[in-house]
Amino acid sequence: MEHQTSSPCGRLAFGCSVSLGPVSSVSLPVSAVETSCRVSAKGRGTSASLRRDVAKEQLVKKHFLGLPLGRSVATSRNVTYQEQAATAVVSVPKAEKANSIAQTPEWKRLVEHSKEFYRTSKPELMAGINMRDSLLDKERCDRFQAEHDGILMDFTRQRMTQKTLDMLVDLAKAAKLEEKRAAMAAGNHINSTEDRAVMHIALRAARDETYMVDGVNVVAQVHEVLDKVQDFAEKIRTGEIVGSTGKMLKDVVCVGIGGSYLATKFVHEALRTDPAASSLALGRLRFYANVDPVEFPRCVEGLDPETTITIIISKTFTTAETILNAKVMKQWYASAGITDISAHLVAVSTNTSLCEKFGIRSDYIFTMWDWVGGRYSVTSCVGTLPLSIQYGFGTAEQFLAGARNIDHHFFTAPLENNLPVLMGLIGVWNASFLGKQTRAVLPYAQALVKFAGHIQQLSMESNGKGVTIDGNRCDYQTGVVEFGEPGTDGQHSFYQLLHQGRVVPADFIGFSRSQHPVHLKGEVVSNHDELMANFFAQPDVMARGKTLDEVHQDGVPFYLLPHKWFSGNRPSISLLFPGSPDAYTLGQLLSLYEHRTAVEGFIWNLNSFDQWGVELGKVLASKVRDQLAASLEKDAPVAGFCGPTQRMMERYIQLNKS
Prior knowledge:
This protein is an alpha/beta fold and about 650 residues long. The chain has helices spanning about 45-65, 75, 80-85, 105-115, 130-135, 140-145, 160-175, 175-185, 220-240, 260-270, 275-280, 295-300, 320-335, 350-360, 380-390, 395-410, 420-435, 450-465, 495-500, 525-545, 550-555, 585-605, 615-635, 645-655, and strands at about 40, 90, 145-150, 150-155, 210-215, 215, 250-255, 285-290, 310-315, 345-350, 365, 440-445, 480-485, 505-510, 570-575.
């Protein structure tokens, strides 16, 4: 029996329906003309047979093999209008994705191996290995630690064995991780959907290093911009560059969203409590990201337009929210009587002409490159410019040096001792083989209050993909939902779920010292020691749990036993950094997670450097914007939207007119 359903990708633009049979079915057009006329292919002549063959080929190419579609059926030969109007129902078996990493022996061995983690003789400890026992295995504990430049990574509390790790390394090799890593460093256009290189590592390269993109050593270009950043920032900080009224510019507002905002905000929030950086702080650094009008007064509260400089950050200078917010800032200056607003506006963009048209001086425009993705751009002038103005160029240099340190480690260390590689392998293991769809980022440092927000974008925008880089639909689990909060705030928010609800792999991040140590007289430990006591305890509780026998031995009433039972076997890694969060360690932390994200994407065979998923919403929002303008100003009826959206828009318009 044949079944016909709509393709999850929607109807394509070239004709009729092709049924895939009872296992998997996709509705695929064959001709350029939609028709309700549907005829069975059975008993038809050569023309219908040819249509079926072509349709089958197109289907397999598009939906399974990821090959180019080429010409549509209607243009590939002389087809009459009547033939275009007819459709053929063809049963096609689901084709195997020949290039899928899931079809490799290494992946299949891991699938079989993962089944061992769902067999246990101790059901009260849930399925899998008993972490209580594994944490007593000194040899395993020694092997499941890695270190670089004083950063200690402990992954003993993972549901894995040495055999698992070895098999994951084999999978990385089968996925050509090392070759893909080398291709990135070589400047190959590994972002194939946008035909771009991926070269954010060049942004923090030393002046004498070489990274080539399209035959050009881009490190020279990077340092040319860095020299301009240093010169501009120092002139702002010394008062050589002033505002239009002659007053010193001491406060900075960054207008940008997404990758133009999140990472820089994370770094700034950490630096503003770092003693070395904060002692150099010029004034106040604010961020104006959300188009919600409430964001504006919150951003400029207490700021003086005469002493404020605005940095507009938009790669294309067309991001709707950013440009609208930039216009609000111009109005703010004008309302304060600023006549030469250009003295207060700076841009970071690749689109010089639009920047100048907006009223920005050419020497106040700082360039970017198309080989830098937004979420990977904080080590460009997106981040270094505002950070250099606020904290001095030397602080930004230390940040770049930390990132460069991990870059070199990532590209040179063996896979088995490579921190970002190990983190990526563990991420793939938990997501694709153990079925864990979430991950918690838990920094035990209040300075990293905005770190989880950056990781949410870095990870989910990079690897939140349902198709491989070749265009094949993924037949395996990719990407995870990232969330987090600094400890100990998170403990009093969502750790209940981590301990007794859904199993969520977690990253615990700690530092040996506090930015502001406090040790009260009479207290047995310092405040930082108290914080770190939780850093050490929480992973153990998640891993070891508490058995019913142990709960009973505590004298707990029988009816409360199941409520106070902790299953354990909940995976985590711990990262312990030397010292406190400073510019250098922040650079290391940033690079560590950037490369972890790339490793996961390389193994899943994704393009971790595009973001087509954010585009469609922007397109529809533009249509809604036009409709709102027409309806609110000219009483035009709402039309062209689905029923629920239309009703909501009509209610919104009605409320705004009443």
